[in-house]
Amino acid sequence: MMLNKLVNLTKMNKEITDDNKLDRSRIPSHIAIIMDGNGRWAKKRGLPRIAGHREGMKVVRRIVKRANQLGVKALTLYAFSTENWKRPKPEVEFIMKLPEQFLLTYLPELIEENVQVRTIGQKEGIPSYTQKAVNEAIEKTKHNDGLILNFALNYGSRFEITEAVRQLSKDLDAGTISAEDVDENLIGSYMMTKGIGDPDLLIRTSGEIRLSNFMLWQLAYTELWFTDVYWPDFSEVDLEQAILDYQNRGRRFGGV
Ligand code: FPP
């Protein structure tokens, strides 16, 4: 009991110390996270992979809360990729139930915290109960103006870019735009992230160092931050450390 208290106290102190080091005027506006390592976290404990996903969902709640407190404007979370369908059916079904479960439990809290729920990704293919839960959350939070919590669900960057090019071509054919109008801003407006600025900081957990078809257009000038920590172990302190490292980097956007 005493030991638990001591551990909690130490954790709290660590958070406060790290937080104090952060420059509140330079918090990244948009953070994107590839939440990886749920399966390995579970395996290490002799648990089924889905136990890692369940734990990962609880971490989402804590990180959303902390990001919001720190003044982050948008948080994009890679929850399910277009490639994740290759996993065993029961695992896919379990992950697809998570948004519904998450929102059933935490939507009132998100509303109270002024969070706006959004999604990017291909709607087709997502089970109707998942779509229903997500649509309800989007609808109920659309007038909020706090943190944008953007779930990438059935998302793949090449799919997004392909769809953007397809739509842009249709508009060219229809004559609503002309070839001279095509610039980076216009292309950006055809992306699913339209209206949300590009990420300033990308975090990937679990020691993998790749982008896995995530926001390839939007990450052009993003600071990348990798950690060996598995997503279910990712804490508020890790988030603060990532932000601190971000603040210590010099962003030049190709300049000098
Ligand atoms: C990657 O770990 C994780 C996923 C594919 C699922 C991510 C989902 C969550 C973290 C929960 C999402 C919560 C909500 C609210 C939508 P992995 O399974 O690839 O792990 P591994 O690389 O160790 O096998």
Can you walk me through this structure?
Helix content is 48%, strand content 13%. With 256 residues, it is of the alpha/beta class. It has one domain: Decaprenyl diphosphate synthase-like (Undecaprenyl pyrophosphate synthetase), CATH 3.40.1180.10. It has a six-stranded parallel sheet with strand order 3-4-2-1-5-6, with helices on both faces. α1 (2-21) packs parallel to α8 (236-247), α2 (38-44) crosses α3 and α4 (89-112) packs parallel to α5 (128-141). The mean pLDDT is 93. Farnesyl diphosphate (FPP) binds at residues 35-40, 53, 56-57, 60, 79, 84, 95, 98-99, 102, 151, 206, 231.
Overview features:
alpha/beta, 256 residues, 8 helices, globular
Can you say what the CATH homologous superfamily is?
Decaprenyl diphosphate synthase-like
The residue-averaged pLDDT reads: 93
Instruction: Tell me the fraction of residues in β-strands, as a range.
Output: 5-15%
User: Radius of gyration, rounded?
Assistant: 19 Å
pLDDT < 50 runs, ≥5 residues: none
Brief synopsis:
This protein has 256 residues and is of the alpha/beta class. It has eight helices and six strands.
Chain-wise SSE layout:
Elements: H1 2-21, E1 30-34, H2 38-44, H3 49-70, E2 74-81, H4 89-112, E3 116-120, H5 128-141, E4 148-155, H6 157-174, H7 184-189, E5 201-204, E6 223-226, H8 236-247
Parallel strand pairs: 1-2, 1-5, 2-4, 3-4, 5-6
The protein binds farnesyl diphosphate.
Farnesyl diphosphate (FPP) binds next to helix 2, helix 3 and helix 4.
